[in-house]
Structure formats: C-alpha cells, structure tokens
Amino acid sequence: MLKRTVYCGELRAEHEGREVVLCGWVHKTRDMGHLVFVDVRDREGLAQIVFQSDRPELVEEAKKLRNEFVVGVRGLVRRRSAVNKDLPTGEVEVEAVELRVFAASKVPPFVIADPPQASEELRLKYRYLDLRRPKMQRHIRLRHEASLAVRNYMSRNGFLEIETPIMANPTPEGARDYLVPSRIHKGRFYALPQSPQQFKQTLMISGFDRYFQIVRCFRDEDLRADRQPEFTQIDIEMSFIEREEFFALNEGLMEAVFALTGRKLARPFPRLPYAEAMEKYGSDKPDLRVPLEMLDLTAVGRDGSSDVLKAAIAAGGELKGLLVPGAGTLSRSRLDKLGDKAKALGAKGLVWIRKQDGWKSSLKLADADFEKIWAALGGADADLALLVADKKATALKALGEIRRTWPMEDAARWANLEFCWVTDFPLFEWSEEEKRFVSMHHPFTSPHEDDMGLLETSPGKVRAKAYDLILNGVEVGGGSIRIHDMALQRRVFRSLGLADSETEEKFGYFLEALSYGAPPHGGIAFGFDRLVMLLAGEESIREVIPFPKTTSALDLMTGSPSAVSDRQLDDLGLKLK
RNA sequence: GGGGUCGUAGUUCAGUUGGUUAGAACGCCGGCCUGUCACGCCGGAGGUCGCGAGUUCGAGUCUCGUCGGCCCCGCCA
Prior knowledge:
RNA-binding; eight-stranded mixed sheet; five-stranded mixed β-barrel; alpha+beta
C-alpha cells in the first residue's frame, strides 16, 4: 500500500527535491505519446504527475489511466519547466517512479469539474460524484468550519451544548409533523421535532442557564430553494436575559461566523419593528440592500380625482406608492410586465406615473393629483412612481415584491451584508382556515407587557416579544422572550381557542414544569443551512447540504422514501389505506 | 392544492409553418504525437426525442394525461 505523505493540493515549491506519495482520483490525462501528464485530485486540490520515457513501462501504465480511477503515485517533486499560474500547485510537478491503481472507474455520467456540466437532477442522482467537485468540497468544509466557529463562540460565552430527543411528541400548533409509529405502544406515535422548543425551555427550568445545540429539525411542508424537510438549526436558549443583551450576543455569533469569509459586520444591527418593516418594505424580511421604500398615499387618493382609487379606498383599501429613481425611461412592455407581476400577487392593478414632457401615467388623474403624489414621493423628472390601491396587505405585498426584485445596478451594494432585527411581531394572526387566532411565532412567546390587557379583548393587536434576524432578505434566525409564568401561559392558550382540557393533554408536563420555578428566559434559532448558504454565496441550501432532497422531497440518490414490507407494517400495527 | 418552466446522444443544448437519413459541442472508443495543463491532429461509435394515449397520410414539433427536475403562491408554531 502506498501511504499518502502529502495532499495533492498542498504541494508547493518548498517540496522540491523530496520524494512524496500522492493518493487521489485521476482528474485528467494528457497523453503526448512518449510523455503522459496526469492531474490527480484529492480534497485539497490538483497536482500534475508526469510519466516520462526513461521509464517506458510506467508510461504504458499511465496510458491506461482513465478519469476517476483511484491511484497512488510515488515520485519526486520538481519545478515545472513552465509554471501554471491557474493552479496553487502550478510551480511544481511530480515525476512518477511508482504507480498503483487502487480502483478503476466507469466513465462518470458527467465530468467532475466546476462549474458542473450537468443538471441538478443528475448531480443529485450521482451526489457522491458531484461532491467530488472542488466547489462542493469547499462548501462542505465551510459548513464544518461554521459549526466549529459556532461551538467555539458559544462555549466561550458559557453555553453548554446539550442534546434533546429526536423522537418526541407531535406538536399541535405549527408545521405538519413527521411521525414515527411506536411498535410497543400500537396506535401511538412519536414525532420528529420541528424544533427542540419545549425541551430547551425545560432545560432553562432545570437550571442550565445557557444552552445551545446544533440540531436537526423536521417539518413536513412543501420545499423551496431555502427549505428542506430536514434542516439544521443553531438552537439557543438563555435565562435571566434582556433583549438588547441577547441581541448583542447573537450579533457576536454572526460576527464569528462571517469572519470565516473575512467579512466584517457593522454593529449593532439596525432594529426594525414589524409594522414599520411592512409599511416601508412590504415584507417581514426586508432586503435592505435595495434602496427603495414605500410610502402611504391613501390621503392623496381619497381626496383626488380618480374614481378608481377612491372606490378602492372607500372599500377599506389603502394607496401605497414606490418611487424608483431613474426608471422613468422604462419601456411600456417592461411596465406591463410589472403590472402582470402585481396582478399575479393578487393586486387588481399597478399604476405607473412618470414626468416627461408632462405627466404620463397608466391611470387618468388631475394634474394636481400628479403633483401631490410626486411631492409626497419626492420624485425627480427621470423617476418612475408605482402605485397600488388595494387591501393594505395586498398593496404592500405587491409593491414590496416589485421592490425586492428590482434589478440593482450597484454591484458593490449587492455584495453588502445588510443585517437587521425585525421586532415586535404580532403575537397572533387570524387563520381563515381554522377560524381562530393562531400563534405567529409559537404559543410560548411572551406578549408585550403594554399589550397584556388586549389578550382577551383584541388578540390581533397584541405585540409579541418576538424577533427575527434578517440578512439580505433571508430570514436567518428567529426567536422570542418566552412566557415563564404558568397563569400567563394558560391565558395565551385560551386566546388561541384551546380548551383547558386540551392544553392539559398536549402541554401538561410543560405547564406543570412552569409551576416549579421557571426563570425568565428567551432564545433564538438560526437556520444553519441558510447561514452557510449565504457564507458560500449560494442561492439554494441544497448547495451546502451533502445529501439534499428535491422539491418533491425525494432523495434521487437513495430513492427514499420507499415502500416497506407488510411484515414491517404488521409489527407496527399499521395498515395502508 | 395551484401557477410557471424544462425534459432530444453519456452530458449540455439546437432542431423552422407537422414532411426525406434528428444535428453541434464536450465526453467516450481507436490511432498518431517528448512539455502538456480547455493539449493538438486523424478516424469512429453512440438516439425507446421522459412515459402513455390522441389528432393526422405523416408527430421531436399539435392536444390530453402522466412521471420527473427547477422557480413561485398557498403552506412553513
């Protein structure tokens, strides 16, 4: 057995004259006849091996090598006659004196190279080959380094990493659970945790004070570029905290993580109340790199000349405006496309206004109205104004989406890291489906002190001590100050329309635990996959998860999920419908 | 659950208004080549056009269904 003495990617000029052994995969061969070059790849990079005519039997062996063969090579490191500047190892090469083929390989379905010349479908089916690509190797390593940075930072700050059960109880609120049938107790089920929420709060009650965990969570909902059915959280909980102090701790964590890519963060991160975020950006996760803000123009519309706007406002709607500087020259077809987008998001229409040789607009308005709108938005001649009159939420969403996806020309700004804390979320939101209020965050979130009186009278107006951490329009974390008083916890459950008996059944142990001296506490959970995605500059978490699932929750490599035998079902007391 | 988009050689794609033998590049195979690194040159093999129905004299192309990839809405305490 040839034992590796150095990684291919670590070969440097300083190794000149030494005998080394490299182990790795054949990346590429260049056969010159009496001279053969072979690039060998391992997890650190590429090295060039040269087989030359003073060892004709070795040259013959080398000619038989094909891509992705696994080889060991013993040889002498020497300087190249011509340096390859594109390769970190490009100053040297290894003159082979011994070659061992550990394993041959079939011709791979795609060439292992960056960028891959293969569809994502094929990459996922042959993930073990895709993961050989240098870029994927970097991503997986970055993931490791990020988890190390988290563990070091948290430990340094007095937090203990504590494991919690993967087989837990189903959660009545929130996402759909993945269920695990119990063989011993037929007809009963464990659920994979959507998060370790109750366990980490229980740990606070147990006195562990500062807890964290890098932990897998499971939610049986539809997938997206940033959502997988199983994902990893950095879960944190802490007792005796105040919000600001806790924010600072978490900002420090982000600092430690982003230091991995040499990025410095501006601290403290801006704080943005939920209501303001919605008003200005039409989103609870605004991308602050986009320098556009919405404005309310309802008063202008109500008193104005347009029956269309008046009718929309009279029906309980609002008029929202977005000024886009310098976009006054946009073509009609582009404007129409924006209108289509607004309609796709549920708005009845999109009004555009520009000021070139007089007012131009998709809606007839009196000049006085144009003047008022323009003044309110602070428009200049080259600008474009976009307006939506509709139900408030619809108008904000439609314009907010146009804002979010506005093509940014300022590349430097696009490279910024714009963090912000979105705070003061509503405690509840109305569920049309269930005809009741449901928790916007989760039912253990503490209401704002000032709004306690509204819990029974107008639950929709109660603000929560909940917060999300947003980075460039991506929700990277969310948490809250929790309820640590049993009586208040019961009140919140009642506001959710849960009967005491029901609460007892579903949260019984936890309510009892709260009555044995629960410290004030709160916490947060970060989406670890999303953080690593942003660190890597990727737009899908699949790029930083070794074995992800497709948007239909299939694992194309293993074929999971799969059918099970009748025997297995029988053991569990289950029958398929 | 809904909308959009894609599916043609091993791979990435092209393929006109439905019309002869479905093309290109890369990869692969064989040959040549002593300094290549996107090696080069010569030659070659390789196709259930995702699957199933339908329309038609004739379907890669049109219609319907279905499976799969991706994006989005709903959903995601």
